[in-house]
Amino acid sequence: ELLSRVDKLDESYQQMALDHQRETQFNREGQLRERKLQDELRKLKAFMNRDPFVLVLIDGDGMIFEDDLLRKGELGGKEAAAGLWNGIKDHVHNRLPDIPSDCRIMARIYANMKGLSEVCWRAGLVEKAGLVEEFYRGFTGSKILFDFVDVGPGKDRADEKINELFRLHLGNFHCQHIFFGCSHDNGYARLLEQYTEPMITDRITLLEGVPFEKELYAMKAKYSTTKIENLFRSTKINLYNQPLYHASQSLQQHPIQVSAHDSMSPPIPNGYQSPYQPIIGTSTPSPAPSNPSTMNPKAPTWASAATSAVQIVSPPATPTPSLSSLAFSTEIPRNRLGQRIDPPTVYDKEEVDRVRKMKLCNVHFLRGDCGYDPCTHSHSKKLSKSEMAALKTVARMVPCRQGSACDDPKCMYGH
Known about the structure:
Blueprint lengths: L1 H47 L4 E7 L7 H5 L2 H22 L8 E8 L1 H10 L7 H13 L3 E5 L6 H14 L4 E7 L7 H4 L5 H4 L2 E4 L6 H4 L6 E3 L28 E4 L51 E4 L35 H8 L5 H5 L18 H12 L19
Parallel strand pairs: 1-2, 1-4, 2-3, 4-5, 5-6
Antiparallel strand pairs: 7-8
């Protein structure tokens, strides 16, 4: 019996020894696995912390630099880039202490270069349209990571590119923060309202140029904001009631008399979507000038809107069709110079912005003769009366290629 008990104890001992050996081996493998995972985590953190940067994303069609900088051309662009870099650097240092000190700054500005240049020139911000191109050439060349991207003419091209780049970098762990320059356009509220979690909203700062539009202003409680003084315009461009500059001071100047009855909007390049709603004054017609010989026979088809007769200097002469060669329709409202004018319209800006985002086919709904098959815009929606009125306003925002010489009674574009 004693020997039997000894055998059982020996068997139990052997089993416990095997269990201990197995546990020891398991613990050793676990320790090795943990050490390996810690090494991988350390490498991953080092990789994630490598090349940190903050992104400055700007809609250049509405966030426009100060007039004094634009007028300096390439030199002004370099000064603007330095001002933007210093302003962002100071903000990061003072208000975002968790961002590494060696963090780089990347800036992207998207706009329609040709359209923006023409608008700035016709609004009197610069003496010639080419200065704006020189300005952004200086801006791009002054910093390695600063770029201006010309999106060309077309509706919402800048918006779409900015939205996609915003989403892309919001999930990029190298991108520590995004400064979003969009204060002029309520449309970006649709993008920002998708993000509600603090861990995401804390990575976004809204950059202010002109005062925030209504919907963006309501989001200021959720997002941090900043304004770099003396860098961006704080007021929207008014294409009317602005002095017009010569493209060349050496050209002979021919003053012409323009009354409020003859006032028309300056032509805007085809495809350029101005982010601003022009202000047009109303007044009663004025009689024809008593001395027609003082009129400039090559005067263009635009003048700044005014409430009284003023003298302006004619811009460089451009070829325009003679009035006698145009077959004007009696159904089309024109001023006494034969220039087509659009009737005033009253609209709800929020409704127009909403309809504008619906991607409707203007030609289908307003003319009924869309020639595209297939068409990239919607034909299937049923529009209410208010939506049809808003769509007419959206179409009016696109300048007509024929300008004030257009004689198509069904034309839905702006003149």
